[in-house]
Amino acid sequence: MPKPLPVQVTPLTISGGPEKNVVYPSVFGMRDQGMEAFINQQIVYETQQLIDMQADEMSSPIIEMDGSFEIKNNQRNVLSLSLSNYAYHYQAAHGMTYITSLTFDLEERKRCSLSDLFRPGSNYVERLTELVNEQIERRNIQTFGDPVEVQPDQDFYIADKVLVLYFQLYDITPYVFGFPMFPVSVYDIQDLINENGPLGRMAVND
Fold first, then answer.
1. ω before 18 within 30° of 0 (cis)?
2. DSSP assignment of the chain, as one string?
3. Mean pLDDT of each 10-residue bin along the chain, 206 residues long
């Protein structure tokens, strides 16, 4: 019998006309009503941040906007999701997309930063930088500079037994390469992860 999902999700929409629709998730049905309200508050805030970033990108009006989301992990009391927003400004050469991700530890009742996933004092930044640059070389990804540096607060999400690090458009590669994403198995960093945190739970085989 399949285990019930920790969080139930329903889509909500912000519409500014036929060409401007932002769909974002809302969680419901949680026993912990306080945590449910916190998660939804964080999602709404980050959704609005993406909209504001697009509005500030150029002075010309936005002709088209498309916002969407993906649930990346909803198991073992870890909720990880991504929000994306595409917008096209009047007479722009092309549209622009931004992605942000949110990861929640439902046991600890908090939103997780990248550092929360690892043991205090661990050299997780150096290890992740090494693993990302190995993938760049192996996958023959053309970057602006060498080596690429993973930041302590690097964008990430969790998908089952994988930590996915990613960079925004133009951060390390030309626009045509899209979003550079680097999946890292929890077993490649098991000696560094916080065993009681989200990645520690993902690494357990059961």
1. no
2. -PPPPS-EEEEEEEESSTTEEEEEEEEE--S-HHHHHHHHHHHHHHHHHHHHHHHHH-SSPEEEEEEEEEEEEEETTEEEEEEEEEEEETT-SS-EEEEEEEEEETTTTEEPPGGGGB-TT--HHHHHHHHHHHHHHHTT---SSSSPPPPTT--EEEETTEEEEE--TTTSS-GGG---EEEEEGGGSTTTB-TTSHHHHHH---
3. 76 90 96 96 98 88 95 96 95 90 97 96 96 95 91 96 96 91 96 95 84
